[in-house]
């Protein structure tokens, strides 16, 4: 006797979905006869959506990837709630999920919903999909445009302000029906309706919403799904816009504000024909026609969300209670948190929260590509710097080379200038394209220095020890990071020849990587604060410890291709920076997984190796800045570094370094009165060659 009992969970929603949306298509003769291709596998083996991308702003590539991850995660989390079934069935659903993204800047940039609908139809026609009942995912597609990414950016900004993970399930997306209007059911759309359905709508990834079918009577128009009061304004507007597509966003926003942010009340008001007509008329009369948004969907600034106190006038000391209030306000403005990384993208946020400024799309695209190709060829001859650490010889996790202007300077770099306690062997002469762009770098960096002094530094004056002279690069360190695993740990750049308050211009080419910075906090700050605390309040001590730990939180600056990062005068003394390893990277069309980084530096003539002190080992001492001890923080010192050279043994040489207010050394015993040779400025050497 045959056991006709059905397997457990055979009629579960998850299994029914698998049978109808996945297994059924794979058994269709017409689909099985399609030639092997990724498109056939996508149709017959998966159940994910088809997505069209119509925005190609500079930051959209990164945002698209973030959006798709949020979409996948939202779907994964919703499966047990929407499609109940066994653990095996749910696991199978997760394994079968896959989305197909159409991305072509040439054909899809800035197109409207009608164009996407036709493209979606033509794609299916080209596949020769047989005349069968198509699953839902092949009857409609999704659209990611500027408005969708802008709404997502608002959600990410809100999460960054609250220092928490962004809930991307609140992101909206546009859904477009391909068979619209339905040729078999022309009565499905009535031209007499006040709000005719256009065949596309806006939905929210993680919010359950009713299908936006049109009602014959405007007064019974369905209200948008209930939005919690803590939802962002962008999400509420997306819900209203999906129901009232003919009302402009300005009118919807005015109505939403008048209803105290309640989507239900706003929907009720707009459902009245007279009120809706008035809103549409007023918005048309008070606003000018707008072009389709083609601006960059870059993360908006964090600054509007921060209440900033006016800059103090440091020329007069503040009373102690006012100083405490000011410190509390500064701590409230601090966005970093212990154990978390704050990601910054916009130039405004980077300049406000870090000692850096960034210029995106710095060079003309062709110039940047030509320079990248030139340095990729050069990088084949780079080497990895070796040094000694805890009596073991280790090497840098990336390759590099030093570039100077002339062959004479090459000899100086290999026999007089030291780096990390040793002479550099991999020194090369500056390439033609590096020389060509050096003038642009010099001008841009000096402009950023001028703005930094004017807008950020106290009283609009340069920092103490910062040079008032024009920044003129004469040495360049070129680094190559071949793949996501290559990196460099947190460090401050060596100041031996740069001098105090050095400025460095860093040009990034190729694959995008994260540049992380963190503030250096003195080790004994906490002990000092405890001594000054007369009440010895345990709660206050814990708050200070937490604030101190938060101050050292990491900040991530994303460095895309063709971006210039300026590390300003406070960077090396008060912060540390790193290129951290990455799990994956988005390959660059020219460099693949490689990143080329040019750090332009200005070696001061007054710090030539002829003048700098030597330790008892007979090697050149290096210049460092004290960072950890509160009583010596900010002072400079000459130290022996011979122990870091492979096989070397150092000595205990130590000498405080003295500088005038412009950062020029004050030598107690100058080793020589001879005039040392100087390094040629890259721009000057270019002019002399011409």
TrEMBL record:
Domain Fe2OG dioxygenase: 472-604
Listed InterPro entries: AlkB-like, AlkB-like_sf, ALKBH3, CUE, Oxoglu/Fe-dep_dioxygenase_dom, Znf_GRF
GRF-type domain residues: 615-660
One GO MF term: dioxygenase activity
Renumbered residue ranges of the record's region Disordered: 211-231, 266-335, 523-552
Superkingdom of the organism of origin: Eukaryota
Pfam name, any one: 2OG-FeII_Oxy_2
Biological process according to GO: DNA alkylation repair
Extent of Low complexity compositional bias: 213-227, 277-288, 322-335
Alphabetic keyword roster: Metal-binding, Zinc, Zinc-finger
Stretches assigned to the CUE domain: 232-277
Biased composition (Acidic residues): 523-537
Annotated signal sequence range: none
Protein name: Fe2OG dioxygenase domain-containing protein
């Amino acid at each position: 006797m045959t056991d006709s009992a059905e397997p457990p969970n055979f009629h579960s929603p998850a299994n029914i979905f698998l049978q109808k949306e996945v297994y059924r298509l794979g058994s269709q003769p017409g689909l099985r006869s399609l030639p092997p291709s990724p498109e056939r596998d996508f149709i017959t083996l998966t159940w994910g959506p088809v997505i069209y991308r119509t925005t190609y702003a500079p930051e959209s590539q990164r945002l698209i990837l973030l959006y798709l991850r949020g979409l996948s995660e939202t779907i994964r989390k919703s499966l047990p709630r929407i499609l109940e079934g066994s653990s095996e069935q749910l696991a199978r659903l997760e394994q079968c999920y896959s989305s197909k993204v159409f991305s072509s800047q040439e054909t899809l940039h800035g197109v409207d919903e009608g164009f996407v609908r036709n493209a979606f139809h033509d794609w299916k026609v080209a596949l020769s999909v047989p005349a069968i009942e198509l699953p839902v995912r092949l009857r409609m597609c999704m659209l990611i445009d500027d408005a969708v990414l802008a709404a997502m950016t608002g959600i990410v900004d809100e999460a960054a302000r609250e220092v928490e993970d962004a809930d991307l399930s609140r992101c909206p997306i546009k859904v477009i029906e391909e068979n619209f209007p339905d040729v078999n059911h022309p009565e499905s759309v009535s031209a007499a309706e006040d709000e005719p359905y256009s065949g596309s709508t806006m939905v929210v990834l993680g919010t359950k919403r009713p299908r936006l079918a049109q009602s014959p009577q405007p007064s019974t128009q369905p209200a948008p799904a209930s939005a919690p009061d803590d939802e962002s304004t962008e999400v509420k507007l997306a819900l209203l816009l999906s129901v009232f597509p003919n009302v402009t966003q300005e009118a919807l926003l005015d109505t939403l504000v008048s209803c105290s942010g309640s989507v239900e009340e706003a929907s009720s008001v707009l459902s009245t024909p007279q009120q809706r007509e008035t809103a549409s008329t007023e918005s048309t009369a008070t606003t000018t026609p707008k072009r389709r948004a083609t601006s960059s969907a870059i993360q908006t600034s964090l600054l509007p969300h921060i209440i900033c106190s006016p800059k103090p006038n440091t020329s007069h000391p503040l009373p102690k209670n006012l100083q405490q209030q000011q410190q509390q306000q500064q701590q409230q403005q601090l966005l970093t948190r212990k154990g978390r990384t704050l990601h910054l993208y916009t130039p405004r946020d980077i300049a406000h929260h870090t000692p850096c400024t960034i210029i995106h799309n710095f060079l003309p695209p062709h110039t940047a590509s030509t320079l990248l190709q030139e340095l990729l060829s050069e990088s084949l001859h780079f080497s990895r710097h070796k040094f000694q650490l805890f009596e073991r010889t280790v090497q840098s996790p990336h390759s590099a080379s030093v570039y100077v202007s002339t062959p004479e300077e090459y000899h100086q770099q290999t026999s007089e200038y030291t780096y990390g306690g040793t002479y550099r062997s991999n020194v090369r002469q500056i390439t033609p394209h590096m020389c060509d762009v050096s003038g642009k770098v010099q001008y841009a960096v000096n402009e950023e220095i001028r703005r930094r002094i004017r807008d950020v530094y106290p009283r609009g004056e340069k920092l103490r020890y910062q040079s008032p002279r024009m920044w003129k690069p004469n040495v360049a360190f070129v680094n190559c990071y071949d793949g996501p695993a290559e990196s460099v740990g947190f460090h401050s750049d060596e100041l031996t020849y740069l001098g105090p308050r050095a400025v460095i211009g860093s040009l990034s080419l190729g694959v995008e990587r994260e540049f992380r910075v963190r503030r250096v906090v003195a080790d004994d700050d906490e002990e000092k604060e405890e001594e000054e605390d007369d009440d010895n309040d345990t709660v206050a001590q814990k708050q200070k410890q937490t604030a101190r730990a938060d101050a050292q939180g990491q900040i991530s600056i994303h460095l895309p291709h063709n971006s210039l990062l300026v590390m300003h005068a406070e960077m090396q003394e008060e912060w540390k920076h790193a290129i951290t390893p990455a799990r994956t990277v988005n390959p660059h069309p020219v460099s693949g997984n490689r990143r080329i980084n040019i750090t332009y530096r200005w070696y001061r003539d007054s710090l030539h190796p002829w003048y700098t002190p030597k330790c008892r080992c007979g090697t050149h001492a290096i210049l460092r800045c004290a960072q950890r001890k509160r009583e010596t923080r900010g002072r400079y010192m000459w130290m022996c570094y011979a122990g870091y050279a492979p096989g070397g043994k150092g000595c205990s040489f130590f000498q405080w370094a003295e500088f005038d207010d412009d950062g020029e050394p004050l030598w107690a015993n100058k080793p020589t009165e001879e005039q040392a040779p100087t390094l040629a400025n890259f721009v000057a050497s270019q002019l002399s060659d011409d």
